[in-house]
């Protein structure tokens, strides 16, 4: 009888400790996700707020579907070039790309930021470069594009619907706003996700017909 009572007590205590550890791990994960999301979204917002809308500027958003959800890609011309080396140009325009790669161990996504100096309209080939890792443990990354009429689109190409003004200056067709959504998870199989989102208004009024 004593052993039976002892087993019941131990089972109750173990269950309480297990629940406590589960809550602690969950809280730790949410804190880590929050830090990564804050850094990533602040960097992405800064880049988009400096998007170059003049002749040769572009913005292209592609929807991609991955194993755990959407893995969208976004490429645009920006004046928010960051310098990481002493020999790099201190200022100027850059072609910035946000793309993902699947982490083979976790099955989740890692987000990369590629920043290559360019002259608008003369962008380099950057398809084979990754850039710098910005955050990981992403189950999904989603971009959506809102035009001047308030309609939302899953993809965008600024070259479609562009206008050529007098003198040959080309004015791209940019969205009025870009919505960014990051979904973090502890594993590729986890059903529970932690979501962070923001929306960035592009710096000037735009002509934004449906692309």
UniProtKB/TrEMBL annotation:
Superkingdom per UniProt: Bacteria
Protein name per the record: General secretion pathway protein J
């Amino acid at each position: 009888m004593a052993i039976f009572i002892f087993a019941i007590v131990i089972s109750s205590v173990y269950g309480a400790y297990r629940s406590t550890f589960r809550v602690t791990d969950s809280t730790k994960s949410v804190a880590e996700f929050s830090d990564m999301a804050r850094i990533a979204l602040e960097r992405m917002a800064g880049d988009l707020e400096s998007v170059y809308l003049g002749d040769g500027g572009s913005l292209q958003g592609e929807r991609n579907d991955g194993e755990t959800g959407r893995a969208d890609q976004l490429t645009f011309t920006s004046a928010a070039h960051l310098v990481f080396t002493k020999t790099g140009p201190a200022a100027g325009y850059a072609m910035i790309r946000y793309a993902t790669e699947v982490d083979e161990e976790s099955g989740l996504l890692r987000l990369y930021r590629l920043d290559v100096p360019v002259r608008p309209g003369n962008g380099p080939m950057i398809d084979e470069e990754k850039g710098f890792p910005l955050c990981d443990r992403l189950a999904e990354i989603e971009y959506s594009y809102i035009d001047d009429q308030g309609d939302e689109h899953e993809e965008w190409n600024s070259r479609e619907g562009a206008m050529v003004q007098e003198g040959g200056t080309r004015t791209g067709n940019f969205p009025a706003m870009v919505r960014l959504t990051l979904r973090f998870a502890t594993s590729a199989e986890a059903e529970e996700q932690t979501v962070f989102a923001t929306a960035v208004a592009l710096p000037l009024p735009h002509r934004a017909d449906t692309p």
